[in-house]
Amino acid sequence: MRVEIAGESALIIYFGEHGQPGVAAAVARAASLLRDELGYRLIDLVPSYASLLVLYDPFRTDHLEVRHLIGKVLKRSEEATEQEAGRLVTLPVYYGEDAGYDLTSLAERVGLTPEEVVELHQQGEYRVYAMGFAPGFAYLGDVDERIACPRLATPRKRVPRGAVGIADRQTAIYPAVSPGGWNLIGRCPKRMFDPDAEPPSPVQVGDRVRFEAISRDEFFALGGSLDDE
Fold it and tell me: Cβ contacts of residue 68 below 8 Å, gap of 6+?
């Protein structure tokens, strides 16, 4: 791990070169500890795949104090195990051609049946590596290499809210209607972003996510919709 200056009142902590489960867990653990340690000095924390941006109030602290506190937190964080960081969140998914427009084509591309793709997608336990692109859009990894598939050559102009997609070795749920080029394999009825909720997203960086298959009827009963809006 290393700490570097990222602006007049910002420091960035690098936990590794690439996002992976252990690194994501370390980022999440450090963010939780830093939020408590910095307290009133803190403006914001921005976690990502392998880094954590720390924005502090220059009228309440300075670079030297923040760096010192970061050092204390990182020492404590190293003592935490990967399992200690992040909650396990289970999200329901209706897998089917009427919900996952690319399920069949993805299966053909990787040499599996649609049922095998669904089974492998459910078996994984994914880390939330980063939040971005849109509010509530969580980048989850790593997908089993047997169902990893590149993004679509031509992105869709409109991807429906709740669409579950795969791109390379990542998977995600679209929180709102938007353009997108991920391979869609199902639909989740759970809202991934609600500005009136606290927290507004059901998952945070460092959490662990599992997917659970539900029937079409269960999907509708949970408030899901197959409309493209």
Answer: none
- Pairing between strand 183-187 and 208-213? unpaired
Where, residue-wise, is CATH 2.40.100.10 in the chain? Answer: 88-221
The β-bridge relationship of strands 42-47 and 2-7 is: unpaired
Left (φ > 0), alpha (ψ -120 to 50) or beta: where does 110 sit? Answer: alpha
Locate CATH 3.30.1360.40 in the chain: 2-84
CA 201, CA 175: separation in Å to the nearest integer? 9
- Give alpha helix (H) positions in 112-212: 114-123
Q: Report phi then psi at 23, rounded to 5.
A: -70, -45
Q: Cα 105 to the chain's mean position, in Å? A: 25
* Cα–Cα nearest to 141, from 209, 90, 51: 209
Location of structure tokens 């009825």: 189
- CA pair distance 67, 86, nearest whole angstrom: 24
Integer Cα distance of 30 and 34 in angstroms: 6
DSSP state letter for 118: H
pTM above 0.90, yes or no: no
Report the 10 Å Cβ neighbour count for 95: 24
Give me the sign of the Cα torsion angle 23, 211, 187, 145. Answer: positive
User: 101-146 pLDDT, tens per residue?
Assistant: 999 999 999 999 999 999 999 999 999 988 888 899 999 999 999 9
Q: Is CATH 1.10.3720.10 the classification given to domain 88-221?
A: no
Fold classification of 2-84 is Gyrase A; domain 2 (3.30.1360)
